[in-house]
Automatic annotation (TrEMBL):
Gene3D superfamilies, sorted: Glycosidases
This protein's name: Glycosyl hydrolase family 13 catalytic domain-containing protein
One GO cellular component term noted in the UniProt record for this chain: cytoplasm
Organism superkingdom: Eukaryota
Gene Ontology molecular function, alphabetical: 1,4-alpha-glucan branching enzyme activity
Sequence ranges assigned to domain Glycosyl hydrolase family 13 catalytic in this UniProt record: 40-324
Organism whose genome encodes this protein: Salix udensis
Endpoints of the signal sequence: none
Matching PANTHER family: 1,4-ALPHA-GLUCAN-BRANCHING ENZYME
Single GO biological process annotation from the record: starch metabolic process
Length: 333
């Protein structure tokens, strides 16, 4: 006697919304979205959190930590399986149902995709997959990110290109994501990964021996593929270097992103909350808000996970803290 299990393919019921003229993005981590001390599920996020996001006036939700990762504290950035959704939060169909519900509410769903590095794990990741350290990655020290403790892709390899390009298409085609926020793009584009660097805008900082040309070409190719196969999809790149042509179309010689993630603005708000109001410099604030390349579209947050969780706290807690980094709040009379 044989038992045959037939799994029916999830059928999406609602069309993907059209791209809005102005994105209002709510950044979310499904596992951390519950008010209870548990790892939340795709189903609970779908039923409890998505309606709240819609009610608050957002038109897009960016979901982090989707790709499978063994180390939960990595926030989803040490990916072990690039094609599998995080199993802690539910099944693949649960994730599809979440995205379908978001589309019903008129919300775009953006994925925080990690193509900048991979988990260092050898038992459940790509590292040493064929017994060598160079199957998908650079061999030797160039293949290791010294700060993130992770492996770095060799974007000059045809197999790496096939793997990552098919991965990007998979999430858009199979799960109906509406676009990506590419993580760690600065780390990809330079062999120094942007670490211990202060970018001044001098072109020698962008087009020199430290530029990983293969990585830049990969970004051009993946953006061109996304635009060709999914014209409505949105591509956002996390870059803090100010790389020229970042948001210029590929056919015009650019890298091809629709938006640059403007990290400096969110950092500036936290910096201001650590100072007395009278120490705020208006010229500095205006410069931070307007410091971008001509006509370049940017995504700016009041706060994102980089400010709220990575060694810091939320703006709400900064405001509620009676003592802000030595600045004692004034008592009401």
């Amino acid at each position: 006697m044989y038992l045959v299990f037939i799994h029916e393919k999830y059928i999406f019921k609602h069309p993907q919304p059209k791209r809005p003229n102005s994105l209002r993005i709510y950044e979310a981590h499904v596992g951390m979205s519950s008010t209870e001390p548990v790892i939340n599920t795709y189903a609970n996020f779908r039923d409890d959190v998505l309606p709240r996001i819609k009610k608050l006036g957002y038109n897009a939700v960016q979901i982090m930590a989707i790709q499978e990762h063994s180390y939960y504290a990595s926030f989803g950035y040490h990916v072990t399986n690039f094609f599998a959704p995080c199993s802690r939060c539910g099944t693949p169909d649960d994730l599809k149902s979440l995205i379908d519900r978001a589309h019903e509410l008129g919300l775009l769903v953006l994925m925080d995709i990690v193509h900048s590095h991979a988990s260092n794990n050898t038992l459940d990741g790509l590292n040493m997959f064929d017994g060598t350290d160079s199957h998908y990655f650079h061999s030797g020290s160039r293949g290791h990110h010294w700060l993130w403790d992770s492996r770095l892709f060799n974007y000059g390899s045809w197999e790496v290109l096939r793997y990552l390009l098919s991965n990007a298409r998979w999430w858009l085609d199979e799960y109906k994501f509406d676009g990506f926020r590419f993580d760690g793009v600065t780390s990809m584009m330079y062999t120094h990964h942007g670490l211990q660097m202060t970018f001044t805008g001098n072109y020698n900082e962008y087009f020199g021996y430290a530029t990983d040309i293969d990585a830049v070409v990969y970004l051009m190719v993946v953006n061109d593929m996304i635009r060709g196969l999914f014209p409505e999809a949105i591509s956002i790149g996390e870059d803090v270097s100010g790389m020229p042509t970042f948001c210029i179309p590929v056919q015009d010689g650019g890298v091809g992103f629709d938006y640059r993630l403007h990290m400096a603005v969110a950092d500036k708000w936290i910096e201001l909350l650590q100072k007395k109001d009278e120490d705020w410099r208006m010229g500095d604030i205006v410069h931070t808000l307007t410091n971008r390349r001509w006509l370049e579209k940017c995504v700016s947050y009041a706060e994102s996970h980089d400010q709220a969780l990575v060694g810091d706290k939320t703006i709400a807690f900064w405001l509620m803290d009676k003592k802000r980094n030595g600045v004692v709040g004034r008592k009401e009379k």
